[in-house]
Amino acid sequence: MRKPKSKNFKLQNRLSEVKEIELLESWIDSGRPDSGSNPLSLSPPPKKSPIGKLPDGSFSPYAGADKFFQLPLSKRTKDGLADKKFSSMTDIQRASLPHSLCGRDILGAAKTGSGKTLAFVIPVLEKLYRARWGPEDGIGCIIMSPTRELADQLFEVLTSVGRHHGFSAGLLIGGRKDVDTEKERVIKLNILVCTPGRLLQHMDETPNFQCPDLQILVLDEADRMLDVGFKKEVNAILSQLPRQKQTLLFSATQTKSVQHLARLNLKDPEYLSVHEESATATPNRLEQTAMIVPLDQKLDMLWSFIRAHLKSRILVFLSSCKQVKFVYEAFKKLRPGIPLKCLHGRMKQDKRMGIYTQFCENHSVLFSTDVVSRGLDFNKGIDWVVQVDCPEDVDSYIHRVGRTARYLSGGRSVLFLAPSETKMLDKLQEKKIPIRVIKANTKRLQSVSGSLAALLVKFPVLQYSAQRAFITYLKSIHKQRDKEIFDVTKLPIDEFGASIGLPLTPKVRFLKQKVKGKKNSEDLALVPESHDNVDPSELLRGTASTARPQKAEVELDESFLLEKNAQLLEADTQLLGAENEIDIRDDGPVTRVLKKKKLKINVHRPVGSRVVFDDEGNTLPPLATLADSNTVSDSVKLDKDKVSQRYAELREMMKVVDKEDKALDHQRRKEKHREATKGRPNKKGKKYFNSDSDNDDDERRKSEDNTGIRTAPITLAEQEELALKLLSSMQ
Ligand SMILES: Nc1ncnc2c1ncn2[C@@H]1O[C@H](COP(=O)(O)OP(=O)(O)OP(=O)(O)O)[C@@H](O)[C@H]1O
């Protein structure tokens, strides 16, 4: 970055800037609907740029400005904007820039994809430029975002638009290993783009890290940054920043909570919600549909949807990392004919970034959690946003669908709602979201449960993953605050388990209790299921209460399941040796079991009492174990033997089926090839096989090498046949 050449030049420049700002201020004041200054009055926003008539009757040079070059911006910023071909302002830019350039605090709200990023990047550059910020001045601006990917994207925009300025900027996000190098450099930076956790880490650990002269603070996705999830971090950060600074808050779903805003010490903020009067809360070019899909058909529907859109870029939202992992792994093995990717918060940062970039480049399906739901502007756009699990609220819906139809482009979204979640439709309509309910075409619905069941038998790790997905899904529903929409007792649990390929429905005891509790709470008190808090003498009299914290029950149940899984996996590993994809180092069950076991500690349990479980996972009364000390261990052992035996049988059967399949497939390929190359011998006079060349088939071959499964996709008839065989063997 070049500095102005001479003192005279500097002065001239400065004077013209001051004049421009004065003009800008009077222009804004002339158009302000309410120039009274109540800090949190949130006065209604001007619908368009204020008319630029100045108090003395003359017209401001910025009247009706809708191009960037009409604003009093530095040449360097204008050049940066021109390089990126930004010329006209969007609504939010037109409404907010005149205010933010005057140094006012802003609460900006505008639809997703409407250009909020530039609405804060430009004032950041201008503020520091006008303050003649230099390397020796330290940190002048902090831009915070809730996710690493979004921080990375903001950093990109800042560095590209600000490339003609000479400020130093740094990206501080979690998951990076080079913290020590970062610590050396961070205090010399002028602009920090960061996630709250990493910034706080530097505030705590980096010597001399301070920002007493901070000029401007930006919170992108402000409502998210100020809600409970980031409350501790953000409060700690705010406590270390100077009170005198400009603050810019932007989001598509802006917070109006006075409580939230009071923490920020805003001064006479401008509340600019440019689309408040708009007929819809989502982008106009977004076509939104919803389908009522029973929970046990959601994966079938998703599979059929993907198979019908092989030439699209599809973003699929699921509610937890474990669901994302399971659906991705399982669908990958079923080879839908389009590359699949997954992204969730538990992945390593490098991998996360790699996947994000790849998804931006190619046609593919990205399974993800809400980690990508906010702010991200995927290159080349997304064709479809598919919400398999209902979002937790309307705001979350708006951000998810907002990943498509950005700026001037179009996009489509589909929401799968279970019959018990249809109340969501009313809530969406209340908030001006034009969503069309369509009927699923059941004729085109392809079932995958049979194939999933077969996969789960073949890959114990997948079975484990399915169980975890099953439990976390139910847990997530149970934890949702909006009970009008999310009622776990209304879900078809057994059918859901079967639909994801689980041969038996895992026990989720909090659920059993919930259902029972709904039916007859008195019965529950008379027939105690758990006794670990209970005085044995009360039990004998039948007067004990079974009340226990629900959370503990969920965890106990899960840990029991995990323990069982670990036993199964151990047996499987020994039986199958290295040919199976069992990885118990990284994310594996054994470590998890050890971790989860800790959760068994029940703080409400009297000291010295011991919890014993029967083979179903229910706790047994302490006296029962005294009466027959062998019962529990014997039954668990029996169960373990039975299960391993069953698994051994199923595996044998799968091997036979697999062999037949391979032979059949080999035969088919041979015939196909023979027909294709009839009378066309190759150079050596021998025949050869064709090889497919598209990406997906590459993936297919790779997965064949790794897994040893057959090469051709499983047809529907084969799936059914396989499922029937499996079912009959299980009966
Ligand atoms: N003035 C402009 N002219 C042309 N394109 C623009 C302009 N401003 C922004 N864009 C483009 O619009 C797209 C969306 O912008 P941006 O990511 O800032 O949206 P947003 O409002 O922050 O969305 P979200 O609410 O999802 O965070 C980007 O691709 C950006 O390059």
From TrEMBL:
Residues 30-56, 659-714 are annotated as: Disordered. It catalyses: ATP + H2O = ADP + phosphate + H(+). InterPro entries: DEAD/DEAH_box_helicase_dom, Helicase_ATP-bd, Helicase_C-like, P-loop_NTPase, RNA-helicase_DEAD-box_CS, SPB4-like_CTE. Its EC number is 3.6.4.13. The keyword Hydrolase applies. Residues 294-456 form the Helicase C-terminal domain. Residues 97-272 form the Helicase ATP-binding domain. The keyword Repeat does not apply. Pfam families: CTE_SPB4 (PF13959), DEAD (PF00270), Helicase_C (PF00271). One of its GO terms (molecular function) is RNA helicase activity. Keywords: ATP-binding, Helicase, Hydrolase, Nucleotide-binding, RNA-binding. Residues 659-678, 698-707 have a biased composition (Basic and acidic residues). Belongs to the DEAD box helicase family. PANTHER family: RNA HELICASE (PTHR24031). The Q motif is unique to and characteristic of the DEAD box family of RNA helicases and controls ATP binding and hydrolysis. RNA helicase. This is ATP-dependent RNA helicase. It comes from Perilla frutescens var. hirtella.
